[in-house]
Specification:
The protein is mainly alpha-helical. The chain is built from 17 helices and 5 strands.
C-alpha cells in the first residue's frame, strides 16, 4: 500500500507528473522506431532470419540486446544505443590520456559541454562505420545463415542504408538527451532499460515453449534471487570518514563538519561487462573472414561459444580486469587526497597528502575485488545455465538484469528526492 500511495503522490505533483509522462512519451517514440524498417532492406528475409533466432547468438546478440530487438527487424534503430556507449567509453579513456580533454573535464559545466559535443561527433562516426559494416555483412550472408538482406546491392542503396541507420542512432541520442533534460532519470539509461525490458516477454515465451511451465517458474525464481543480490551489491559501500578543520574568515567560522566518502563495492557498474563482451566479439568477427577451416573451427568452438569453458574463463578474467581498470580511471585517489588537503579535510588517523592517497587506493583495491567477482558471476550465470539446460536463450541474463536493476534504483532515487522536496513520503525506506 505504501508503494501504491507513493506512485499516487508522484502523479499529484504537476511538475513530476509532467516529467514522468514526457519520459513515457519518448519511450513510446523510441519503441516505435525499433519497428520501422530500414529503406533498402528486404523485410521478409529479415523477418525470416529473426524467426530463426539468428540474432540471439553470435556477433548480433549484444547489439540486439541494446536495440530492443530492432536488429532482428533491421529497423532504423537497429544499432541502438551501442555507438553512443562506445563513444562515451572512448572519451572517458581519452580523458586520462589527452591533456586537453583532462583540462576540459576540470572546467566544470563548460568543459563537460565540450566533451559531450565531441562524444556526439564520435557517436555519428562510429554509427557510420558500424552501419557500413552491417550492410556488407548482411549482403554477404556469412553471418546470417546464408540469407541476403540486400539483394539489390549497389552504392546508392548502401549509402541509403548507412544514412538511415546513422540518422536513427543520432535520433536515439537526441531522445536520450531530451529525457535527461526534461524527463526523469538518465536518458540513455532509460532507453537501454526500455530496450531490454521489451525483449523479456518473447524470451520468456521461448523458454516456456522449449522447457515447460516448471522450468520457466524456476527461471523466474532464479531471476528474483539475482535481483535481490544485485540490489544488495549495488547499495553496498565503504564509507570513509572525513573531518574538515575549522576556518575563520572575517567574523564567520567555516568547516568543522564531519562527512564521508562513499566508495561503492561495485564502483564500475556494468561497464566491465560491456568492455569484456565487446572484446570477445572480435573473434566472432574474425571467424567470418578467416579462410582456414581449422582456425575457424577453433574460434567457433572455444571463443564464440558461450557454453564453452574457454569462453567462460576468458569472459570472467576480462570482467575482473576491466572492473579494476575502469575503477582506476573513474576514481583517482591522488586527486581526491589533494582536494581534501586543499579544503582542510583529513581522514582521522591518516596524514593528508600522499598517505591519504595510498590509504584510499588500498581500500579501493580491497573492496573492488568482491564487486568484480560478483559481476563476473552474474555475467557468467546465463552461460552456465545455457550449457546445463541446453536452451537457446535465457531471460534475466546477467548483463540485462544488472542494467535494469541499476537504472530502476537510480530513477527511484530521483523520484524519491523530488517527493521528499515536496514533503511527500517516498518509495525508499
Amino acid at each position: 500500500m505504501n508503494l501504491l500511495s507513493s506512485f499516487v503522490n508522484a502523479f499529484k505533483v504537476p511538475d513530476l507528473r509532467r516529467k514522468i509522462l514526457f519520459t513515457l512519451l519518448i519511450i513510446a517514440v523510441y519503441r516505435f522506431g525499433a519497428h520501422v524498417p530500414t529503406p533498402g532492406i528486404d523485410v521478409e528475409r529479415a523477418q525470416e532470419f529473426a524467426r530463426g533466432g539468428g540474432a540471439d547468438s553470435g556477433i548480433f546478440s549484444f547489439i540486439n540486446l541494446f536495440s530492443g530487438g530492432a536488429l532482428t527487424q533491421m529497423a532504423i534503430f537497429a544499432l541502438g544505443i551501442m555507438p553512443y556507449i562506445t563513444s562515451s567509453i572512448i572519451m572517458q579513456l581519452l580523458t586520462v590520456v589527452i591533456p586537453k580533454l583532462e583540462a576540459w573535464s576540470k572546467e566544470g559545466e563548460t568543459g563537460r559541454k565540450k566533451i559531450t559535443q565531441w562524444t556526439r561527433y564520435l557517436t555519428v562516426l562510429l554509427a557510420m562505420l558500424q552501419s557500413t559494416g552491417l550492410a556488407f555483412l548482411f549482403h554477404s550472408g556469412q553471418a546470417t545463415n546464408g540469407i541476403d538482406f540486400i539483394p539489390q546491392f549497389n552504392p546508392a542503396r548502401v549509402a541509403l542504408i548507412v544514412l538511415s541507420l546513422t540518422a536513427g542512432t543520432a535520433l536515439i541520442m537526441w531522445l536520450g538527451e531530451l529525457i535527461t533534460q526534461k524527463g526523469i532519470g538518465n536518458g540513455m539509461s532509460i532507453l537501454i532499460f526500455a530496450s531490454i525490458v521489451s525483449t523479456l516477454p518473447s524470451e520468456g515465451n521461448a523458454i516456456l515453449a522449449q522447457k515447460g511451465i516448471w522450468f520457466f517458474l524456476g527461471i523466474l525464481a532464479l531471476g528474483l534471487l539475482i535481483v535481490v543480490a544485485i540490489v544488495v551489491m549495488e547499495q553496498g559501500q565503504r564509507r570513509i570518514p572525513v573531518q574538515y578543520a575549522k576556518r575563520v574568515v572575517g567574523r564567520k567560522m567555516y568547516g568543522g563538519q564531519s562527512v564521508y566518502i562513499p566508495l561503492k563495492v561495485n564502483q564500475a557498474g556494468v561497464i566491465p561487462i560491456i568492455f569484456a563482451s565487446s572484446v570477445l566479439y572480435i573473434p566472432s568477427l574474425l571467424g567470418q573472414v578467416v579462410q582456414s577451416t581449422g582456425l575457424r573451427s577453433f574460434i567457433e568452438n572455444n571463443l564464440t561459444n558461450p557454453a564453452s569453458a574457454t569462453y567462460m574463463i576468458l569472459y570472467g578474467v576480462m570482467v575482473v580486469f576491466f572492473a579494476y581498470f575502469y575503477t582506476a580511471i573513474s576514481f583517482n585517489p591522488v586527486d581526491q587526497a589533494d582536494n581534501m588537503k586543499k579544503y582542510g579535510g583529513f581522514i582521522p588517523g591518516i596524514r593528508p597528502g600522499r598517505q591519504t592517497a595510498e590509504y584510499l587506493d588500498r581500500i579501493l583495491t580491497r573492496i573492488t575485488l568482491p564487486g568484480a567477482l560478483f559481476i563476473a558471476a552474474i555475467a557468467l550465470l546465463p552461460n552456465i545455465v545455457l550449457a546445463i539446460a541446453n536452451i537457446q536463450q535465457l531471460p534475466f541474463g546477467g548483463t540485462s538484469i544488472l542494467i535494469t536493476v541499476g537504472v530502476v534504483l537510480e530513477t527511484m532515487k530521483q523520484i524519491e528526492s523530488q517527493l521528499m522536496m515536496r514533503h511527500y513520503e517516498g518509495f525508499l525506506k
